[in-house]
Amino acid sequence: MNVLEELEWRGLIADSTDAAALAQRLNHGPITVYAGFDPTADSLHVGNLVPLFGLRRFQLQGHYAIALAGGATGMVGDPSGKTQERQLLTKEIVTHNLDCIKPQLARFLDFDPARNPARLVNNYDWTAPVSMLDFLRDIGKHFTVNQMVAKESVRGRMEDREVGISFAEFSYMLLQAFDFYVLARDYKCELQIGGSSGAASRPGLISAEKN
Question: pTM for the full model?
Answer without folding.
Answer: 0.84
